[in-house]
UniProtKB/TrEMBL annotation:
GO molecular function, one term: molybdenum ion binding
Organism: Selaginella moellendorffii (Spikemoss)
Keyword Metal-binding: yes
Biochemical pathway: Energy metabolism; sulfur metabolism; Sulfur metabolism
Protein name: Sulfite oxidase
Cellular compartments per GO CC: mitochondrion
Region feature (Disordered): 1-27
InterPro entries registered for this protein in UniProt: Ig_E-set (IPR014756), MoCF_OxRdtse_dimer (IPR005066), Mopterin_OxRdtase_euk (IPR008335), OxRdtase_Mopterin-bd_dom (IPR000572), OxRdtase_Mopterin-bd_sf (IPR036374)
Positions of the Oxidoreductase molybdopterin-binding domain: 53-230
């Protein structure tokens, strides 16, 4: 290949939006300001969360880029970007979410290991590219070999892989399913991918934790069993609260794939001052993995004693509560509820139910795990109420 490479230093990093909430600079990991998330159904590329394990890879000449399709395939391929663009283009609106989203709340129960994400380690975008199953069919792969797996390799230089490339895999049955809508994306929100999001090519696996949507893709390999790389076998697994670093057995758990139902409050924020007797708009997002759309969002302003159903929308506030067939199943819904405030102390709580009737756990301590992944507990925001005559 020779033109796409993973540098070993951080001297050639791309420009980033200064409003991002930076959790680490090297490697660069940052999330969106929560209130910015609910401004638009589609997250702008510059504000979309950044999750990296090393310096951002560099490409010298996109015209010389090659993607290798190999492994257990009848006809190995070497494809250029133009070859991929010549295939039928498919777009999918999908939310990508880090498995560690909302890790900071879990770390307040007991210490966990990982980037300290708050509630914004995710974003929703319109991805464009070639369907993965079209590319695999070009290499002669057929559905009858569906018990195999498809491994994606990047040029990302990762210390966790002893300086080797970032890797991940999905079952071949998922890769070959048109309903799964797995694509090799070269566009994001109608524009060419930028470097932070995988330029020139990335995998997008809708409904699955972001770790499987490998960026800076260089190789696709059909293999007999799931990828044996670090991020499949020694990370991104969920253990019970009884497991610690002294008794952990990585082989006892499967790699995380679909993410559970999630529903944080983006506005107002913890500690905000609100005036009694006024009206307040509460806003957030809700999302569930595996193509399971959101059926309902419930909001409480009294700590969970009583509940009201919020309005859900996608696409410029087109409400979907009465039109479930319009729901984009791999995308989040944004929601809002306007309430009249009282003099009582306010604790706003939000929770969601997905189309399979999956619900969220009430208490984060019941799902604590040493890696701090999949915190989907009820989200709570405590507000300070001031008298009606107060000046804010």
């Amino acid at each position: 290949m020779g033109v796409l490479y993973g540098p070993k230093s951080y001297e050639n990093e791309p420009h980033r939006d200064p409003s991002l909430i930076v959790n680490s600079k090297e490697p660069f990991n940052a999330e969106t300001p929560p209130k910015a998330l609910v401004r638009s159904f589609v997250t702008p590329e510059d504000l979309f969360y950044k999750r990296n394990h090393g310096p951002i890879p560099v490409i010298d000449d996109p015209n010389n880029y090659r993607l290798e399709i190999c492994g257990l395939v009848p006809g190995p391929l070497s494809l250029s970007l133009q070859d991929l663009r010549n295939l039928p283009k498919h777009t999918v609106t999908a939310t990508l979410q880090c498995a560690g989203n909302r890790r900071t709340a879990m770390s307040k129960v007991r210490k966990v290991k990982g980037v300290g994400w708050a509630i914004s380690a995710l974003g929703n975008a319109v991805w464009g590219g070639a369907r993965l199953h079209d590319v695999l069919e070009l290499a002669g792969v057929r559905q009858e070999s569906s018990k195999r797996h498809v491994e994606f390799s990047s040029v990302d230089v990762c210390k966790e892989e002893n300086g080797g490339p970032y890797k991940g895999s999905i079952p071949l049955s998922q890769a070959m399913s048109p309903e799964a809508e797995v694509i090799l994306a070269y566009e994001m929100n109608g524009k060419e991918l930028n470097r932070d999001h995988g330029f020139p090519l990335r995998v997008v696996v809708p409904g699955v934790i972001g770790a499987r949507s490998v960026k800076w893709l260089t190789e696709i390999k059909v293999i007999e069993e799931e990828c044996q790389g670090f991020f499949m076998q020694k990370d991104f697994k969920m253990f019970p609260p009884t497991v610690d670093w002294d008794n952990i057995n990585w082989n006892s758990r499967r790699p995380l794939m679909d993410f559970p139902v999630q529903c944080p409050i983006c506005s107002p924020a913890e500690g905000d001052l609100v005036k009694a007797g006024s009206k307040m708009k509460i806003q957030g997002y809700a999302v569930s993995g595996g193509g399971r759309g959101i059926e309902r969002v419930d909001v409480s302003v009294d700590g969970g004693k009583t509940w009201q159903e919020a309005q859900r929308f996608q696409d410029d506030k087109e409400y979907i509560a009465d039109n479930p067939e319009k729901c984009k199943r791999f995308a989040w819904v944004l929601w809002e509820l306007t309430v009249e405030l009282t003099n009582s102390p306010l604790e706003v709580v939000a929770k969601a139910v997905d189309a399979a009737a999956n619900i969220q756990p009430e208490d984060v301590s019941s799902i604590w795990n040493l890696r701090g992944v999949l915190n989907t507990s009820w989200h709570r925001v405590r507000l300070n109420v001031v008298p009606p005559q107060s000046k804010l």
